[in-house]
């Protein structure tokens, strides 16, 4: 009798450990996919020097090729504050109909390291979401992933 109780306990322990390991692997792969899409979007915006039709086309191709799951509509805040170099910068939402609803892109104008600088720089912030869907309870967990581009010089025609 004592051996059967020990075997049941050991079997439950092994099953719990396997579930924990597979949950960790699922989270790692989901984070990797969301971060990879985020990083590719940053590269496209930097390559084409801003959010325009060329970068939008590149982002659409990448989202389709990476298999990033677009979820139902996410309400992106209109403004976002971010700090860089000890200063807080306010960014505005850039909403393009070509973007999926699970991606938020923010434009940060006046992103200069020095307050007295007369040069105008801007950056973009991209927020994608890592997503977990649990099939039995239909409960969804979303974790945001945010990254920023390098500073880009405004040659003219900036807001």
Order of helices and strands: HHEEEEEE
End-to-end Cα distance: 78 Å
Beta strand % = 25-35%
- E-strand count: 6
- The computed structural class is alpha+beta
> Total helix count?
2
For the sheet with most strands, the description reads: 6 strands, antiparallel
Extract low-pLDDT stretches.
Answer: none
Classify the helix fraction into a percent range. Answer: 25-40%
Shape: elongated
Radius of gyration: 22 Å
Please state the average pLDDT score. 78
List the defining traits of the structure above.
159 residues, alpha+beta, six-stranded antiparallel β-sheet, 2 helices
Tell me about this structure.
This protein has 159 residues and is of the alpha+beta class. It has helices at residues 2-47, 53-66; strands at residues 79-84, 87-94, 104-109, 121-134, 139-148, 152-153. The longest helix has 46 residues, at 2-47. The chain starts with a helix and ends in a 6-residue tail after the last strand. The mean pLDDT is 78.
